[in-house]
């Protein structure tokens, strides 16, 4: 009987130290999420300006650009998966990976070959463990992405998109990331980044949204050539930022639940430990009483 | 004379916004000066220096930028740059 009491005590202790860890993770995530959301809103003016400029060029000139045209010479397509570097974020990585799997399955059913690019260590280990070849991976900054990382990812994808078919060129780029809706809701989303669907997803501008008749310097084609890579980079950066905010929100919620569960466990084990102690005392008393009885009847 | 509303934005945030009398930017074909009432223009920027003369006088503000683009219409200028290398308020000694 004394054994079970000791076991409960040990469990209470280990659960308490786990609880401390969960609590710390929760607080860390909570303190970072504000900054992550700030970054999302800081990047908004840039992407708004660039989207407006791209639609201006696209509507007022007849130039085409390789990024706007469907490629028919290859069936290779790229999928960029944005997940987290670390776990302890509930189903965050799992659900975005599941979404990616669904997308890959659909693309393969359409007869396409998928080249997979991933960002985030969780996604990388998921696929390397399953022996799937990755065309590229970036890790180390999933909860605070920088413009440099976004630029690197964009350059890699754009290079692949520009490459000829026999040099591993790709015909489409899809991005799977988690959209930050609010603190409780984060939704995995799939977007097709390339070829670009211009004026797609452009937020209806607040003012009278007639784009002015711009003069292009030096000429529309050159302007477009300078704008589109930046546009792609800003879209990728925005996705990374959304994913980072979602990751932190998911982690905060998961760790909050974990803390509460740990508290429940501690309460339960304390009750069991008390019961065991009570049982032990009762047993001891009855042993003493029966021992005394035996002595009394013997004399 | 009317002033220009200027927004200078980089990928990771707004750098400066306010009203200005004149903007000088390193456009693709050479430096371009913009005053209020300029025709709508969308131009690529080369690496170089952006100078903004704030409304109501004062010191010229300068930023070294790594390229980007500038769009201007109805006295609203948006300068979008990849990154600002250095800049802010210039020293008085450098004049303009």
From TrEMBL, chain B:
Localization in the cell: Cell membrane
An example molecular function term from Gene Ontology annotations: proton-transporting ATP synthase activity, rotational mechanism
Boundaries of every ATP synthase F1 complex delta/epsilon subunit N-terminal domain copy: 5-83
Function: Produces ATP from ADP in the presence of a proton gradient across the membrane.
Signal peptide: none
Predominant cellular place of this UniProt entry's protein: membrane
Matches recorded under HAMAP family: ATP_synth_epsil_bac (MF_00530)
Family: Belongs to the ATPase epsilon chain family.
Membrane topology: Peripheral membrane protein
Keyword list, A-Z: ATP synthesis, Cell membrane, CF(1), Hydrogen ion transport, Ion transport, Membrane, Transport
Assembly description: F-type ATPases have 2 components, CF(1) - the catalytic core - and CF(0) - the membrane proton channel. CF(1) has five subunits: alpha(3), beta(3), gamma(1), delta(1), epsilon(1). CF(0) has three main subunits: a, b and c.
Stored PANTHER family: ATP SYNTHASE DELTA/EPSILON CHAIN, ATP SYNTHASE EPSILON CHAIN, CHLOROPLASTIC
InterPro entries named in the record: ATP_synth_F1_dsu/esu, ATP_synth_F1_dsu/esu_N, ATPsynth_dsu/esu_N
Name the UniProt record assigns to this protein: ATP synthase epsilon chain
Gene Ontology cellular-component terms listed: plasma membrane; proton-transporting ATP synthase complex
């Amino acid at each position: 009987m004394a054994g079970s009491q000791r076991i409960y005590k040990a469990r209470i202790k280990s659960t308490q130290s786990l609880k401390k860890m969960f609590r710390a993770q929760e607080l860390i995530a909570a303190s970072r999420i504000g900054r992550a959301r700030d970054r999302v809103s800081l990047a908004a003016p840039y992407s708004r300006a660039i989207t407006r400029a791209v639609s201006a060029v696209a509507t007022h000139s007849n130039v085409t650009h390789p990024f706007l045209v469907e490629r028919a010479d290859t069936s290779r397509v790229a999928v960029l998966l944005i997940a987290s570097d670390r776990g302890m974020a509930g189903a965050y990585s799992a659900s975005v990976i599941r979404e990616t799997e669904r997308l890959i399955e659909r693309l393969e059913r359409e007869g396409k070959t998928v080249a997979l690019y991933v960002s985030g260590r969780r996604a990388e280990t998921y696929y390397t463990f399953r022996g799937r070849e990755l065309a590229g991976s970036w890790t180390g900054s999933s909860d605070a992405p920088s413009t440099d990382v976004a630029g690197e990812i964009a350059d890699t994808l754009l290079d692949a998109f520009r490459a000829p078919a026999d040099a591993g060129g790709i015909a489409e780029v899809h991005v799977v990331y988690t959209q930050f809706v609010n603190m409780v809701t984060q939704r995995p989303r799939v977007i097709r980044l390339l070829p670009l669907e211009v004026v797609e997803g452009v937020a209806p501008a607040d003012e009278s949204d007639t784009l002015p008749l711009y003069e292009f310097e030096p000429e529309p084609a050159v302007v477009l050539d300078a704008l589109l890579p930046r546009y792609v980079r800003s879209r990728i950066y925005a996705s990374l930022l959304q994913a980072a905010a979602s990751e932190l929100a998911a982690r905060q919620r998961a760790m909050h639940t974990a803390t509460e569960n740990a508290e429940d466990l501690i309460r339960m084990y304390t009750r069991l430990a008390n019961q065991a102690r009570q049982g032990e005392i009762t047993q001891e008393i009855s042993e003493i009483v029966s021992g005394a009885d035996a002595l009394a009847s013997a004399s | 004379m009317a002033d220009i509303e200027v927004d200078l934005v980089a990928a990771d945030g707004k750098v400066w916004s306010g009203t200005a009398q004149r903007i000088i930017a390193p456009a693709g074909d050479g430096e371009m000066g913009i005053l209020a009432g300029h025709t709508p223009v969308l131009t690529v920027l080369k690496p170089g220096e952006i100078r903004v003369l704030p409304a109501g006088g004062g010191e010229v503000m300068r930023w070294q930028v790594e390229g980007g683009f500038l769009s201007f219409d109805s006295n609203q200028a948006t300068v979008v740059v990849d990154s600002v290398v250095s800049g802010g308020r210039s020293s008085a000694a450098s004049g303009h």
